[in-house]
Amino acid sequence: MVEHVRDYLEQHQDRFVGELVEFLKIPSVSADSTLKAETRRGAEFVQQQMEAAGLESQIIETAGHPIVYGSWKKAEGKPTVLVYGHYDVQPPDPLDQWQTPPFEPDIRDGHVYARGATDDKGQMYTHIKSVEAWMKTQGELPVNVVFVIEGEEEVGSDNLDRFLAENKDLVACDIAVISDTSQYAPGIPAITYGLRGILACEVIVNGPRQDLHSGVFGGAVTNPANGLARMVAALHDDQGRVQIPGFYDNVIELQQEERDQFAALPFDEAKFMSDLGVKAVSGEAEFSTLERRWARPTCDVNGMVSGYTGEGPKTIVPAQARVKISCRLVPDQDPAALTRALEQFLLEQLPAGLTMKFIDYHGCKGLVFDFNSPYMAAARTAIEQAFGTAPVMIREGGSIPVVETFQSLVGVETLLLGWGQNTDNLHSPNERFSLEAFRQGTLASALLWQELANIQV
């Protein structure tokens, strides 16, 4: 049975690539209101491909860009798998840094180059094609599937939570699958079993009602830029530990098994520094670089501005200074509680003569899943068969808010199965996706349905 599926995938691979190229030609940039019609065309393409694969599918309207829903639920007594992805893409700017135009896909050196190639059109499309292979060769799937493909991931998924909350019967499942992460390295597939959460805010410090002459007023009033610099400096001690009260209280520490797994991964710290153009790594002294990146909480300034920043001098005491701050969080840190603690801490550092405005942007919790669960075991088996080598188990330092949403609203964990590479230029010029990874990912997806069917629910 599975051999017929394999043969179908092999025989139709060139067609799949051609379809992906057509998909990538659609400039479905959700952030650009002038491309609203093109973004909808992206949804229509996905809906048509679901129908062609044998899924029942519909476009569901939202207050923003539509959600494409597909399903096949005829495998009685078998698990139901929810596949999530997104058809919208990042803006392609700066255009002058693309070797070929971002929406004119180009195949070279074994990759397809286009905006959305890896994030997330190419990766998401593997699951639609794997369903097609089963339906065309067997007339059925070994599991039940539900597809939720949205068009607002790149602008915050404003309408997805509402859809999930209002349609719990449509999205009820036993496990979710997302392919919007990466392999660990070329030739080393990975399953991501943990994500960091996030809180993000902006702090605006105001002093005099307008910029002042620094010769006339300097030394007589508090300088907002100087004051904000001291406030930001207070966020860390000399060892790099975050000083927000209670910041580490609920942190779930790494298990020794995890630390051993991370240590066993091939990681060249010298190359890591060279690739980034830095002379040293930094962070909590008792943790490795991978541990700091994946499984330890952080507090970072994302942007800071004040006063005159143009060419040449302008001797002023600026009226205002502002900083954008984000904290990456790990289980079981509470983003809402820590946002309040951060605001209070900065207020306590605020120098006399200044006022502070605090803007809370967003937050989500960090998550870690049981890497010994039967669902993880099924994914490991499918990936090893498709890629020819066992996947490594890794965490991811970034955040995918929908994963927390699936856990809190739908009540399920997520298999994060990435086929791309961190070097695929996601969100950057010359985004690409390996055609071999596309092939292997599609096969892994097809094999996953069979492996998940063996789990008792």
From TrEMBL:
Biological process (GO), any one: proteolysis
Matches recorded under Pfam families: M20_dimer, Peptidase_M20
Enzyme Commission number(s) of this protein: 3.5.1.18
UniProt keyword annotation of Secreted present: no
GO MF term set: metal ion binding; peptidase activity; succinyl-diaminopimelate desuccinylase activity
InterPro entries xref list: Cyt/Met_Dipeptidase, Peptidase_M20, Peptidase_M20_dimer
Keywords: Hydrolase, Metal-binding, Protease
Domain (Peptidase M20 dimerisation): residue spans on this chain: 193-351
The organism's place on the tree of life at top rank: Bacteria
PANTHER family with a match to the protein in the record: BETA-ALA-HIS DIPEPTIDASE, SUCCINYL-DIAMINOPIMELATE DESUCCINYLASE
Protein name: Succinyl-diaminopimelate desuccinylase
Name of the coding gene: dapE
